[in-house]
């Protein structure tokens, strides 16, 4: 399985070869271990590290690199001790009986749209059912103060929606707000022209929008979006990789921080391709823990 977790700003002098092992000395993972965590630089990767660690402990994924900083092991509550085996390697013993439970990083609120003008529905007003085979990730492209998930609900349930549009889920730094069931048709990738294979993609996709209001904590919104995508894919019976960008469907620059390098720089210390690769890896890792 993939193990390309991204790390930013790793400093070589903090890195040592190490063995992560269980109480009986059985090897769980071998690789690079950050001897000291650097709190200021644990931005996106902190979440990835936690996920990697949980995977290692559960032995769900055979990572070639352990990526388990001692500081983070302590931080996330795993009991560890250093063992001297006189082989020049750093041995970290992790308590075998540790139980790992992955929980949502934020509340998941369900508050469906009620204004039938703004969503596709049956004659009796009920949601129009589809069977999603793909998830689609978006950004709201609205950096205005207050443009969070609640604000988008308010807008998309109002009588003033400029053109027919919505999505199934809006994620901000505080919560995941689901405004349509995953099986309900949303208007999130409508277009005059589609990329090959994507015609009328609203009929077979669900959409998740990441809010980028500048008064929000984007790092948190990113993490919440990772969870929202992983969980939604699972609930739809899809695989961890069964999602794409709005960009892949129609060519629209959305989410811009996974498409356009200049815009990406404002959100991640990465190129757009690197940021999107990280998102895909993070979704995969969370999915495997659900
Ligand atoms: Zn979009």
CATH hierarchy class name of the largest domain? Alpha Beta
Gap between N and C termini, in Å? 16 Å
Instruction: Please name the CATH architecture of the largest domain.
Output: 3-Layer(aba) Sandwich
**Strand ordering within the main sheet:** 5-8-7-9-6-10
The percent range for helix content is 25-40%
* Poorly predicted segments: 1-16, 32-48, 59-76, 96-101
Instruction: Tell me what portion of residues adopts beta-strand conformation.
Output: 15-25%
Large-scale geometry: elongated
Number of helices: 7
Please state the structural category. Answer: alpha/beta
Task: List the secondary-structure elements in sequence, H or E.
Answer: EEHHEEEEHEEEHEHHH
Q: Which fold does the CATH topology of the largest domain refer to?
A: Lysozyme-like
Q: What is the H level of CATH, i.e. the homologous superfamily of the largest domain?
A: Peptidoglycan recognition protein-like
- Cα Rg: 21 Å
Number of self-contained structural domains = 2
The biggest sheet, with number of strands, parallel, antiparallel or mixed sense and barrel status, is: 6 strands, mixed
The average pLDDT score comes to 79
Number of strands: 10
Bound molecules: zinc ion
Give a verbal description of the structure.
With 290 residues, this protein is of the alpha/beta class. It has 2 domains: 83 residues, no CATH class; 182 residues, Peptidoglycan recognition protein-like (Lysozyme-like, 3-Layer(aba) Sandwich). The protein has 7 helices and 10 strands. The strands form 2 sheets. Strands 5-8-7-9-6-10 form a 6-stranded mixed β-sheet, sandwiched between helices. The longest helix is centred in the C-terminal third of the chain and has 18 residues. The protein is elongated and about 75 Å long. The N terminus is likely disordered. The structure holds zinc ion (ZN). The site of zinc ion has 4 residues, from loops.
